[in-house]
Amino acid sequence: MIGDRACERCLARPWLLERLRGHLDLERGRLGAALELPDRELIAAVAGAERGSVSRELDRFDAAGARERCERAKVEPVCRCDPGYPVRLADLAAPPAVIHVAGGLDRFLDLAAGDPVAIVGARRASSYGLEVARSLGRGLGAAGAVVLSGMALGIDSAAHAGALAAQAPTLAVLPAGADHAYPASRRALHGRIQAAGAAISELPPGAEVRRWMFPARNRVIAALALMTVVVEASERSGALITAGLAQGLGRGLGAVPGRVTSPLAAGPNSLLAAGAALVRGAQDVLDRLYGVGVRDGSAAEHRAELSPDLRRVLDQIAGGRDTAAALERAGHRPEEMLAAVASLELHGYIRREIGGRFVPLP
Amino acid sequence: MLARVATFTIDGVDPRQVWVEVDIRPGLPAFTIVGLGDAAVRESRERIRSAVLNSGFEFPARRITANLAPAFLRKVGPGFDAALALGVLAASGQVAPESLATFAVFGELSLGGELRDSPGALAVAEGAHRAGFAHLIVPRERAREAALVEGIAIAGASSLRDAAEVLAGRTPAAPPAEARRASARQEPDLADVRGHAAPLLALQIAAAGGHNLLLEGAPGTGKTMLARRLPSILPALTRAEAIEVTRIHSVAGIQSDGLVHARPFRAPHHSISPAGLVGGGAPPRPGEATLANHGVLFLDELSEFQRSSLDALRQPLEDGCVTIVRGQRALVFPTRFMLVAATNPCPCGYAGVGDRCGCGEADLRRHRRRLSGPLLDRMDLLVDVARPAGRELRAGPAVDSARVCARVAVARERQQARLAGTQARCNGEMDGKLVSRHVRLEAAAEAAVARAYDAGALSARGRHRVLRVARTIADLEQSDRVSVDHVLTALSLRQRDQASAALAA
């Protein structure tokens, strides 16, 4: 029966968080402390004038109603009293009392135990970042690792999509209810993630999103993952919060280097400077997790051999002559150059981006 | 006494004959005009009275009734003045009424009796010729333009007095000056372009195959500059085309003098309404699409145009004409133009320029959505325009319009020979059936197209677009078969629609 793996006491906690959702947009740093507080103290600390009424409502908490709500939304709750509750989450100072799982509880518990790797990064990512995230997702997925992310626009979604493209399961930790997609434009991806992996959330199904839920979600990602890889992030990105939490929990941390001129590379580059593992591809992550050469990440499909001419053009693109105009300046006739890039594109070596830039595919 | 004068009015871009009947009877002095005229027609009474008196004629102090027939046709504008005045003169016996039988008259009068420049003289001359008139009197400024119609004697009159003299046969109709020969083309030339090798190639392909072209690039990279040079490499207008263009431009009042030799280049501002773009209003007037007939319609900042305006372009692009129905009447405006559009690649405009672009995936998708899908569907070519390097700016010109124009002409001839007997005149107009009949691919080329299609890089329509363009590239190289290089070049000039769909994961 749905709900029999979450006890009544624990189920009250997500209810309370949802009830207090309007009170928890606290300034930076205080949220973590607030989430550590037991129910009554949390009410006293944040509920303000509603203190009395929330407290009375908590007294009358209807666990059966909460279970029924989960059942209707086809979401299975598992609480921290359950022996199967992911052990790594218990490392958190304030582990989620209940994890709500959409897409199959047993599968989630298996995947969570299977060393997930978090891939996180900017929403407004560059095409380079998206490409790297997708390729990391694909490579890790193909090598049997579980890709974990937050299903946000940009890097997160690209990582999930990459894993799904490799027919590998993937885990999404959602800020609000696990039963509906946030952002709503990722509904299709949400469906595919549930079909192949699981979407989880600390909050009960149907909960509406609030600002505080994003850092709260990030702590779940950081704790659940064996290693966190930051692909692209500006200085103030939420991905850096995840990275900081992961480091604090003693998890592995990796970052993908970017162009030093790009604001999106500021986050990962500064992580690298501070000692994060350099991630150039799935193999780097696998080497870090399992030891060098233990698992093979060369899952990229075999591509046709290139003629010397095409190889030269590809090298020039990779070397920064990555627009048609730049290639012309390198001395190619326009007809030949256009035919060459179309050929490289057809064989999956590059992709043509908006704005006319060619991106070499990993 | 009753007099009858033939004149013409412009309905859309076509001439319609109107009979002006003037009857003068004894009675209290009055001047009435009947026959569904607009305010300008009603006001013409005052102009005619002054013009007649100031030309040294007598204005009859009797009851004058003028009728404009057919009565159902709405008459618009001041173009009936000359006919009405001559009708008054004929009905009062000041000019011989029988002399009017072989004449048609067209023009507006000033109070002093001068015949003013009136738009649409070429259309009127065509109408008068078709209606069987031997002579046509038009304002002197318009004589040369009207004389483009052969088989009708054109008299350019500068005043009402002149017109009366012409009718009396006293002044022989001054033969209008010979139309100027097509002088050296004065359009902006490709020789002004520095760098931009790929866009130049795309322009050449577009001109050779009549393909619609989308230019994408950051602000200030030269998209407009390139588009303006497209008319210079299109084949010269044929005489029939030139006359059609002249007629339309004359009706719209934008024609200067004599025959138009340059292909039209119209670049409407993005605030234009659907009616402004494809024609409409009351009375219906041709829109920019019709003014660009046989030329280039350039839409700069495509994403800024109203969606409704762009969608209105679909039918004209598809059919080569636009039909505007008003009440009982349907007007047909020709709209055979090449469409060239320019847009920024992303909302900030700097995608692809170093790391300057700060647009996220969602911004890009929103930007894409602003471009009308059905319109993009008609764009065979997309080319990225990048800022030329300083070294290129200092180098000499790569090509000039005359040389490219010659290549384009050869390619067009090959297409016309191949497509003779079909409704298409160039590769850009081939539909799916013609594409499969006329585009013969070499085996390797076939494989490349199949690969692109299977990889999801091409839609079914996108495949047709690529094949059409590849056919044109082969025509430019005077090759009967389409090789793999032709296909690959065409592929790299295709739209990115599928790639951006893939981006959305």
- Low-pLDDT segments of chain A: none
Mean pLDDT of chain B: 86
Which two chains form the greatest contact, residue counts included?
A-B, 47 and 52 residues
CATH class of the largest domain in chain B: Alpha Beta
CATH superfamily of the largest domain in chain B: P-loop containing nucleotide triphosphate hydrolases
Average pLDDT rating of chain A: 89
How many alpha or pi helices of chain B? 21
Topology-level CATH name of the largest domain in chain B: Rossmann fold
Number of strands of chain B: 16
Q: Name the beta content range of chain A.
A: 5-15%
* Rg of chain A (CA only): 23 Å
| Order of helical and strand elements of chain A | HHHHHEEHEHEHEHEHEHEHEHHHHEE
Overall CATH class of the largest domain in chain A: Alpha Beta
Number of domains of chain A: 2
What about the largest sheet of chain B? 5 strands, parallel
Rg of chain B (CA only): 28 Å
Q: Helical residue percent of chain B?
A: 25-40%
- Proper CATH architecture of the largest domain in chain A: 3-Layer(aba) Sandwich
Largest sheet of chain A: 9 strands, mixed
Low-confidence stretches of chain B: 498-505
Overall description:
The complex is a heterodimer of chains A (362) and B (505). Chain A is an alpha/beta fold and 362 residues long. Chain A has two domains: 225 residues, Rossmann fold (3-Layer(aba) Sandwich); 53 residues, Winged helix-like DNA-binding domain superfamily/Winged helix DNA-binding domain (Arc Repressor Mutant, subunit A, Orthogonal Bundle), CATH 1.10.10.10. Helix content of chain A is 45%, strand content 12%. In chain A, strand 7, helix 11 and strand 8 form a beta-alpha-beta unit. In chain A, helix 7 packs parallel to helix 8 and helix 7 crosses helix 13. Chain A is elongated and about 80 Å long. Chain B is an alpha/beta fold and 505 residues long. Chain B folds into three domains: 167 residues, Ribosomal Protein S5, domain 2 (2-Layer Sandwich); 224 residues, P-loop containing nucleotide triphosphate hydrolases (Rossmann fold); 76 residues, Helicase, Ruva Protein, domain 3 (Orthogonal Bundle). Chain B has 21 helices and 16 strands. In chain B, the strands form five sheets. A five-stranded parallel β-sheet of chain B has the order 11-12-15-10-16. In chain B, strands 1-2-4-3 form a four-stranded mixed β-sheet. In chain B, strand 1 and strand 2 form a beta hairpin. In chain B, helix 6 packs parallel to helix 16. The longest helix of chain B has 19 residues. The termini of chain B are far apart. The chains are: A alpha/beta (362), B alpha/beta (505). At the A-B interface, helix 7, helix 8, helix 15 and helix 16 of A face helix 6, helix 13, helix 18, helix 20 and helix 21 of B.
